[in-house]
Write a structure and sequence with these properties.
291 residues, MetI-like fold, 13 helices
C-alpha cells in the first residue's frame, strides 16, 4: 500500500513538474499579447508615464500594469471613426492576402497533385528543385524580381506583390504531402470505374488531401497578412501599402493609438489560426512523412 502511494505521489509530482515547465514558455508567448491588450485600454497620460523612460535619456526603468487605472476605449474610437486611412490599408492587406491565396489555389494545388500522383522521369529531381527554391529568402530574389516587374510595368501596383506570391513553392510543398498520403490503389480503382483524371482530382484528390491544402492556406494567410519587405521594395504610393507598413510609421507619442491598431490587426490572424488549427497540425505531419 505504501508503495502505491509513493508511486502516485511520484506520478503527480512528475505531472506538476511538466506542467510548470510547459507553463513558462506559454506565459512568455501570451505576455506580449496581454501587454498589447492592456496598453490599448490606457489613456495617453497613463501610457506615457509607463513607457516614456524608454524614449528619453532618463535613468528610470520602464514599468507596466496589466490592469489600467482608468480603462478607456478612446484609442479604438479614434482609430475606427476618425482614421479613414486605417481602413484603406486594412482592406489593402485583405485584398493582397485573398488574391494571393486564390491564385495559389489555381496554381499550387494542381502542381502538387501532379508531383504526387504522376511519377514521370525526373519528377523527383524537379520537386527537389522546388524545395530548394522554397528555402531562398526574399533578399536573394529581390533584385531579379524588381527588374522583371519593372520590365512588365507592374511596379507600384498590387500586382507586383500578388503575382510573384501566387507562384510560391511553399504551398506546393505542403499540398504535396496531403496528396501523397492518398493510397494509389484508391486512385486506380476510380480510374477502373471510368473516372477521368479531372474527376479523380476533384472527387478524390481534393477531399482526401484537404489537410495539406488548408494548412498551406492558413500559413499563407498568416504570412501575407503581415507582408513587410515586398511592399517596401515594390510599392511607393502609401495608399497602396498594407497594414503591416502602417504601424511602424506611428511615433511613441501615438503609442496608445498604435496599441489599438495592433490589436485590430491581430484579430484576423487569430481568427484564421483558430479555425484552421487542426488542419494546420495535420498538414505539417503530412509534410514530414517520407515517401
Amino acid at each position: 500500500m505504501d508503495i502505491r502511494i509513493i508511486k502516485k505521489f511520484c506520478m503527480a509530482a512528475k505531472q506538476a513538474f511538466l506542467f510548470m515547465v510547459l507553463l513558462l514558455p506559454a506565459l512568455l508567448v501570451i505576455l506580449p499579447i496581454l501587454l498589447l491588450l492592456s496598453g490599448s485600454l490606457m489613456d495617453i497620460w497613463e501610457l506615457g508615464k509607463y513607457i516614456s523612460p524608454a524614449f528619453t535619456e532618463g535613468k528610470e526603468f520602464v514599468s507596466w500594469k496589466l490592469l489600467p487605472d482608468y480603462p478607456t476605449f478612446t484609442g479604438y474610437g479614434k482609430l475606427l471613426f476618425e482614421t479613414p486611412e486605417f481602413f484603406v490599408l486594412f482592406w489593402n492587406s485583405m485584398k493582397l492576402a485573398v488574391c494571393i491565396l486564390a491564385g495559389q489555389l489555381l496554381v499550387a494545388v494542381p502542381a502538387a497533385w501532379g508531383f504526387a500522383v504522376y511519377q514521370v522521369r525526373e519528377s523527383r529531381g524537379l520537386f527537389a528543385l522546388y524545395v530548394v527554391l522554397m528555402l531562398l529568402p526574399f533578399q536573394v530574389t529581390m533584385l531579379s524580381s524588381y527588374l522583371v516587374l519593372n520590365k512588365l510595368s507592374l511596379l507600384n501596383t498590387h500586382q507586383a506583390i500578388i503575382l510573384p506570391a501566387v507562384f510560391s513553392t511553399f504551398p506546393v510543398f505542403l499540398s504535396y504531402g496531403g496528396f501523397k498520403s492518398i493510397p494509389c490503389q484508391m486512385l486506380e480503382a476510380a480510374r477502373v470505374d471510368g473516372a477521368g483524371e479531372f474527376t479523380v482530382f476533384v472527387r478524390l484528390g481534393i477531399p482526401l488531401g484537404k489537410s495539406g491544402l488548408l494548412s498551406a492556406m492558413v500559413l499563407g494567410f498568416l504570412e501575407y497578412w503581415s507582408l513587410l519587405e515586398q511592399p517596401m521594395a515594390f510599392l511607393e504610393n502609401k495608399y497602396l501599402w498594407p497594414l503591416s507598413l502602417y504601424l511602424p510609421q506611428l511615433t511613441w507619442g501615438q503609442a496608445g493609438f498604435a496599441f489599438c491598431a495592433s490589436v485590430i490587426t491581430l484579430i484576423p490572424a487569430v481568427f484564421v489560426f483558430a479555425i484552421g488549427q487542426d488542419y494546420l497540425e495535420q498538414g505539417i505531419i503530412y509534410s514530414g512523412l517520407k515517401e
